[in-house]
Amino acid sequence: HIQAKKFQIFNSGHPLPNNVSVLAAKSIMKFLEQRKKEDIVIFLVSGGGSSLISLPAGISLNEKIRVNNLLLKSGATIQEFNCIRKHLSKIKGGMMVENLKCQAVALVMSDVENNDLSSISSGCTYYDKTTFQNSLKIIKKYNLRKKIPKRVLKRLNDGYVGKIKDTPKKPRIKNQIIATNKDCLKSMAKKAKQLGYKPKITTISGNVITESQKIIQLLPKKKNSCLIFGGETTVNVTGKGKGGRNQELVLRILKNSLKIKNDVVISSIGTDGIDGNTKDAGAIIEKSSISNNVINHYLKNNDSNSFFKKYGGLIKTGYTHTNLLDIGVLLN
């Protein structure tokens, strides 16, 4: 913790915003409005900012939380998620710096695939490539129209017909990426070589079922080989269990590994130290004689956390205070 009077610290909500998230956003905007022309502002931006700072536009915080909750469980990608967030906000998509009077630079830690600056922290210091129309298409894609609060739909429709100004479409300040998921994977590969493994690197993105199948297929057959992967999967939550995308990914890879002869160790964690609705970062497990039926029982209810509590393998790191997507490894 930073112990200094010149630092103001807000313990905001994540993955869902809370009242402190709103207070944090208002305080940042007030600070920026007070800057003089000769000042220089340095922003340090990381993933999670979409929830940690929140200033809803035309809707209440509770309505914003409801939308976030629906999107979290829908299987929407982070880009789709943030597209809607930006069009329900007064600060995201570059609006935070749109009227800044002084020079500024943003140093950004990337938690999104392809290091898309418009998606990291919902592009609060960058600009927005998406539109109100895109937001409405995403809601239709995931069949959320009947579940979304009416005022949210009204705002998006008003924006679509031009009643509300869209987000900025060009950058106001310089944004520089300083750390990425690839940096993590390179460090893992270096360590793997030191331990006598032959590493292979791949990225994951999209539906957890598809990606778990891809990963097991990519595992090299030779002994002392390892597959290192990074990125972020999406989980369509239909059950009421506890878990997260990393724990569910490990469990699904375990299920797929029952079809191959190799003995494998499987692990995946979130670099921020928190996976889904649990206090664990992820899981690690060795291929075992656990039956397919047992695994399916837990997967059906999205209850991977209960599986690993019973059979062992939960990884607990606590908050890491950084966010560079997820990382994982398969050891052969």
TrEMBL record:
<dbReference type="InterPro" id="IPR039760">
    <property type="entry name" value="MOFRL_protein"/>
</dbReference>
<dbReference type="InterPro" id="IPR007835">
    <property type="entry name" value="MOFRL"/>
</dbReference>
<dbReference type="Pfam" id="PF05161">
    <property type="entry name" value="MOFRL"/>
</dbReference>
<dbReference type="InterPro" id="IPR025286">
    <property type="entry name" value="MOFRL_assoc_dom"/>
</dbReference>
<dbReference type="GO" id="GO:0005737">
    <property type="term" value="C:cytoplasm"/>
</dbReference>
<feature type="transmembrane region" description="Helical">
    <location>
        <begin position="40"/>
        <end position="59"/>
    </location>
</feature>
<dbReference type="GO" id="GO:0008887">
    <property type="term" value="F:glycerate kinase activity"/>
</dbReference>
<protein>
    <recommendedName>
        <fullName>MOFRL domain-containing protein</fullName>
    </recommendedName>
</protein>
<keyword id="KW-1133">Transmembrane helix</keyword>
<feature type="domain" description="MOFRL">
    <location>
        <begin position="226"/>
        <end position="326"/>
    </location>
</feature>
<keyword id="KW-0472">Membrane</keyword>
<feature type="domain" description="MOFRL-associated">
    <location>
        <begin position="4"/>
        <end position="156"/>
    </location>
</feature>
<dbReference type="Pfam" id="PF13660">
    <property type="entry name" value="DUF4147"/>
</dbReference>
<keyword id="KW-0812">Transmembrane</keyword>
<dbReference type="InterPro" id="IPR037035">
    <property type="entry name" value="GK-like_C_sf"/>
</dbReference>
<dbReference type="InterPro" id="IPR038614">
    <property type="entry name" value="GK_N_sf"/>
</dbReference>
